[in-house]
Amino acid sequence: MRYRVGLETRTRILEATRDLVAAQGLEKTTIKAICEKAGILVGSFYNLFDSKEEAILTVVADAIRAVGPDGDGEASLHELVDAYVDFVENSEATARVYLMVAVSGGLTDDGIRARMLRHHEQRIELFSRALRAARPEMDEEEVRRRMESLLAALNGMAFHRLLDPSFEFRKYARGLLEIGA
Amino acid sequence: MRYRVGLETRTRILEATRDLVAAQGLEKTTIKAICEKAGILVGSFYNLFDSKEEAILTVVADAIRAVGPDGDGEASLHELVDAYVDFVENSEATARVYLMVAVSGGLTDDGIRARMLRHHEQRIELFSRALRAARPEMDEEEVRRRMESLLAALNGMAFHRLLDPSFEFRKYARGLLEIGA
DNA sequence: TTCTAATTTGATCGTGCACTCAAAGAAACC
DNA sequence: GGTTTCTTTGAGTGCACGATCAAATTAGAA
User: Fold this and answer.
1) Chain B residues with CB-CB distance to A104 below 8 A
2) Does the beta-carbon distance from B103 to A106 stay under 8 Å?
3) Given this model, what pLDDT does residue A6 score?
4) Which of A150, A165, A178, B147 could form a disulfide with B127 if both were Cys (CB 3.0 to 4.6 A apart)?
5) pLDDT tens figures, B67-122
């Protein structure tokens, strides 16, 4: 990286990278394509990023952050579920990136796998807090079991929604709450 | 492809391809690595496959087939769930390949996406038949809704199991049956 | 053993990729 | 206008990959 500014260009590069990764996957996304989409030439890319990997990792880190948990610990289960649905519906490109990294990265790279498991654990914790608040009498083991199931189901549904835009993710997600909690 | 035999070599190539894809992903799997693992040289590979793509597609098709549905329509819900858990536990490499293709392929390639949706639909149908048999009084909409939820949750759990070998997939999968059906 | 067809070998090729860098061009300040 | 600092340009490099093929080797039938 030769210079440290050019912030607007940097943003365009990251947006282009995110959209291309969402559409084509991590490996098929080339520097040339990123630059074309961002309206710059190769050299400019390397003024702002040391490597293709750095740009992609930035996008990926943003995606993981976007999934949460951002909860202050006060949100209800219903709100948490709705927030996840909102995220998938409104930030589709980012959600796609997250899912691809979670699966392809998680299954093939030990570092990413560890990170994904940690992230997952935090979400379980956040959801469990919400359920405990609503049902203080419930057994602790039972709380965790239900939230692990709920999150697995939500993730499975999110994936299905990204494959099939006609899938009514919100309806099914809310249905999960009625049955399981 | 110049010749049609060499069956044992072909099998070794496909096994090597499957294991490498399961460990490294679709794109990072190179012809060189496949050949090394299979104990052959590049030329032999091209005597039996027209391209790298053909070998990978063969492995992928096998993986999709291995997930099912193979049901004769008579299996109970419990048996179907157990069979899926068995598949993930006992054919881990194949399960990994399936999951990677479903996600990375499904999200980036229209052909694969259509195929995945068709495959998913067949599984929903198979599971729904089992639930209808056990609970004939249940509303048809309700049956489908529950089986879509169940399969989403199973897929999410299968993924988690592949990330984290200590995750007790079978226990959680059976727990789903108690709650949802 | 001889002959033929099946199979393997490995050097070689072309392509597309990530990445470099010297030079040109803008912007900001005096 | 002059000077410096920031930013873009795009031809160029090297490398790894998928793929090719003529020649060597092996297997089996006659």
Assistant:
1) 25, 100, 103-104
2) no
3) 67
4) B147
5) 877 767 789 999 999 999 999 999 999 999 999 999 999 999 999 999 999 999 99
Each residue's pLDDT tens digit, A142-155: 999 999 999 999 99
Structure tokens at A49: 């990023």
CA dihedral B151, B156, B158, B164 (to 10 degrees): -160
The conformation of residue B26, written as its DSSP 8-state character, comes to T
CB burial class (10 A; 0-12, 13-18, 19+) of residue A165?
exposed
Picking from B82, B172, B75, B86, the residue whose alpha carbon sits closest to that of residue B126 is B75
Query: Whole-angstrom Cα distance, residue B104 to residue A56?
Result: 16
Across residues B129-137, what is the average pLDDT? 95
Give the number of other Cβ atoms within 10 Å of residue A140's Cβ: 9
Q: How many helices (H) and strands (E) does chain A have?
A: 10, 0
Contact B104 A108 (CB under 8 A): no
Alpha-carbon torsion (B138, B144, B145, B149), positive or negative: positive
Which among B94, B115, B95 has a CA at the least distance from the CA of B105? B115
The protein footprint on chain C, as nucleotides within 7 A of a CB, is 6-12, 16-22
Neighbour count for residue B65 (Cβ, 10 Å): 12
Q: What is the mean pLDDT of chain A?
A: 93
